[in-house]
Design brief:
Blueprint lengths: L2 H17 L2 H8 L5 H19 L16 H22 L4 H7 L2 H12 L7 H18 E3 L4 E2 L1 H21 L6 H22 L7 H37 L2 H14 L5 H18 L5
Antiparallel strand pairs: 1-2
Helix pairs in contact: 1-10, 1-11, 2-5, 2-10, 2-11, 3-4, 3-9, 3-10, 4-8, 4-9, 5-11, 6-7, 6-8, 6-10, 7-12, 8-10, 9-10
């Protein structure tokens, strides 16, 4: 593995580890903050945090966004408004561990969109990983196998994954540009858009301590995580980066059990085993 690829893999894993904080900590904060307001604060925290860091950055040679990048930039912002709102709605209706594991469906969405819309190549090994992750996602979405009743919370999480799959590919088209500029635009664009929606829906601003906690979570789980993700995409591409990012849900599951003491069900254990197999195939896939 080349040195540049090693750095990219490190960035992808760092992005996953930071994002893993999102589901369990958001689940706790959602007791005090409404779902759309929470989504807004997460992205505003990302934008504010990286705007504050920008003057201290050592590298000044990054390329700025241009008018040609506008369609992908707009798509990125709109999708980043929809995705976290869906995720927060899902978290209010399902466990944090379930939501964390379902986040692996983002691999499937990102890879398929990269294949059909952006013509990235997908190996047989990655196809096998996609099949296993999809099967596991179906197991997690079905609440009662005998009656085939579906968990609406899981459906919202899957919708978030599809939105992020499209968004990952939009971001891939911008990955050669300044990551801090991209995340600042993401943060303020998506955060302010979600904030307007939250206020229109009548959601209230939370108490200061919860507001600051949500902003801080957004800085780490969205801001720094997305920055690392963009650096990884430069070398690895959208589909490959998303496979290394598959580590995030498993860290999230561990944190959910550790912090929230959520119970294990048989269907969850089966789905976890299938998801582990799929994530392993994805993460060990190598280009032809």
């Amino acid at each position: 593995m080349k040195q540049a690829e090693k750095r990219a893999v490190f960035c992808a894993i760092a992005a996953a580890a930071l994002y893993a904080l999102n589901s369990p900590v958001s689940k706790l904060l959602l007791h005090e903050i409404s779902s759309t307001m929470m989504a807004a604060l997460l992205y505003l925290g990302a934008g504010l945090g990286l705007l504050a860091l920008r003057p201290f950055r050592k590298g000044k040679g990054e390329r700025p966004l241009t008018k040609k990048d506008l369609p992908y930039t707009i798509g990125m912002v709109l999708l980043d408004i929809a995705a976290p709102i869906c995720l927060m709605l899902g978290l209010t209706r399902t466990t944090a561990a379930n939501a964390s594991l379902l986040n692996n469906f983002e691999i499937v969405a990102t890879a398929l969109i990269a294949l059909f819309l952006f013509k990235e190549q997908i190996s047989k090994r990655l196809w096998a990983a996609i099949f296993l992750v999809t099967a596991s996602s179906i197991l997690l979405t079905v609440e009662d196998v005998s009656s085939l009743s579906f968990s609406i919370g899981s459906v919202f999480v899957l919708l978030a994954c599809v939105c992020w799959g499209f968004e990952n590919n939009c971001t891939r088209m911008l990955s050669q540009k300044d990551p801090l500029e991209i995340v600042i635009i993401k943060g303020f664009g998506s955060g302010l858009g979600s904030l307007v929606i939250a206020l229109v829906l009548g959601e209230s601003i939370p108490a200061v301590r919860f507001l600051l906690a949500a902003l801080l979570l957004g800085f780490f789980a969205y801001g720094l995580s997305i920055c690392f993700y963009i650096y990884a995409q430069r070398e690895l591409g959208a589909a490959k980066t998303s496979t290394y990012y598959a580590l995030a849900p498993f860290i999230g599951v561990f944190l959910s059990f550790l912090m929230l003491r959520e119970p294990l069900t048989l269907s969850f254990i089966i789905a976890l085993a299938v998801m582990v197999a799929g994530a392993y195939l994805a993460a060990t896939d190598t280009p032809a």
